[in-house]
Amino acid sequence: MAKLILSMEGLVLKEITLGKERVTIGRKPHNDIQIDNLAISGEHAAIVTILNDSFLEDLGSTNGTLVNGEPVTKHFLRNNDVIELGKYRLKYINDPAIAGDAPDFEKTMILRPGAVRPMEAPKDHSNTSLGMKAPASAAPVAGQAPAAPAAAIQLLNGANAGKELELTKTLTTLGKPGVQVAVIARRPHGYFITHVEGAQFPVLNGKVLDTQAHPLSDHDVIEIAGVKMEFFFKT
């Protein structure tokens, strides 16, 4: 499990395990990591962790957030990255032997023209109920969790309306960088959507989501950065 090592001027202050999907950093007491220093904003930054991957987002702080000496607004964290908040340092530790050297997530942003491939065949969902049973997956190997069934999203509006993106990666990034970004995580027990970047949160079936991961059901309708899309299991 990933962790942070908090230090100031070379003195290690504490070690924090990233056991929550969203960890906030700031001066105010309600933050998961409170740093009581005037150089730190009340709500300075947040780290979203999904499976073995963590994303750092600056929350509009006054003095900014640096990673390895460079200012960032959103950053995909890698093992041994150093987050700088004023005089404080947070070293990100994530054993590459467990997490892998390369992030396993789909880099395609769906709002870029031509970023998704055409549908293989038209899909008729008119006779399908929202409670439809997910397709059965192959029998799991003894001792292993069953794999989530294959799934995809179909765009419902915009320039790429009618096109399909298969969710083949552990993490699939959706949205428009700098405006609104969310991630769909493929886990053994299903698919989950989590907000990553932007003041506006994703909308699921007409309801605005919060900071927590939300499970996806067959034919859920998601809206991210003004683009609507339908999540469905492939048959």
Task: Describe the structure in your own words.
The model is unreliable at 98-109 and 111-145 (pLDDT under 50). With 235 residues, this protein is an all-beta fold. The two termini are 34 Å apart. A six-stranded antiparallel beta sheet has the order 2-1-11-10-7-8, with no helix packed on it. A six-stranded antiparallel beta sheet has the order 14-13-22-21-18-19, with no helix packed on it. It has one helix at residues 96-99; strands spanning 3-8, 11-17, 22-26, 33-34, 45-50, 53-58, 65-67, 70-72, 74-76, 82-85, 88-93, 105-106, 151-155, 164-166, 171-176, 180-187, 190-197, 203-204, 207-208, 214-215, 221-224, 227-233. Helix content is 2%, strand content 43%.
What's the gist of this structure?
With 235 residues, the chain is mostly beta strands. The chain has one helix spanning 96-99, and strands spanning 3-8, 11-17, 22-26, 33-34, 45-50, 53-58, 65-67, 70-72, 74-76, 82-85, 88-93, 105-106, 151-155, 164-166, 171-176, 180-187, 190-197, 203-204, 207-208, 214-215, 221-224, 227-233.
Rg over C-alpha atoms, rounded to the nearest angstrom: 19 Å
Separate helix tally: 1
Helix/strand order, N-terminal first: EEEEEEEEEEEHEEEEEEEEEEE
β-sheet strand percentage: 35-45%
Largest sheet: 6 strands, antiparallel
Q: Which geometry do the CA atoms define?
A: elongated
Task: Please report the total strand number as a whole number.
Answer: 22
Q: How are the strands of the biggest sheet laid out side by side? A: 2-1-11-10-7-8
Kindly report how far apart the N and C termini lie: 34 Å
What class, by secondary structure content? mainly beta
pLDDT < 50 runs, ≥5 residues: 98-109, 111-145
Instruction: Look at the structure and give the mean pLDDT.
Output: 78
